[in-house]
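Hi, here's the filled form for the chain we discussed.

Project: internal
Contact: R.S.
Residues: 159
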Amino acid sequence: MIWRVLIKVSAVFLSAVAGITFTTIIVSPVIWIMYMSANDGPIFPPPLVALGFFGLPYAVLLLPVQLVVALYEFFTRRSLGLLLLVIAAVDGLLAGLLWSLVYQSTDTMFVIALFAVALLQSIVVYGSYWLWDRFAPGLLKALWNTLQSRKTVLGRLWD
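And the returned structure, exactly as it came back:
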């Protein structure tokens, strides 16, 4: 029971971190190009701006649905499989809609970019969630057995 809870919690956490990292890496060059073409205002580090205005807000907007998916899979003991792609698309589009309403922009390309970044982050989040949830139990069990059989320092500490 505790093992399953740890796998789900780690899957949610690591997939959120993967989505934040992906979005920060993708958006930072665009912000840098915008800084180079602008001639006024302070210049903050592009990764910091990408993290604060895109990565973290989208992670917060994606988190409630991600928690609902994790709780559903935990209590039913079934994986959603390919339905996660549909959930990722809907959740990403909803996050993009909410964040575009926060910005209240009338620029069509900017709104499309907000939707695209939210959709990409959502796909990365749910894809990495599925990968970790699917492969982590076997990998962690193999690591545990390796540590126990070789009696390494870690294996001795965990005894």
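Let me know if anything looks off before we file it.
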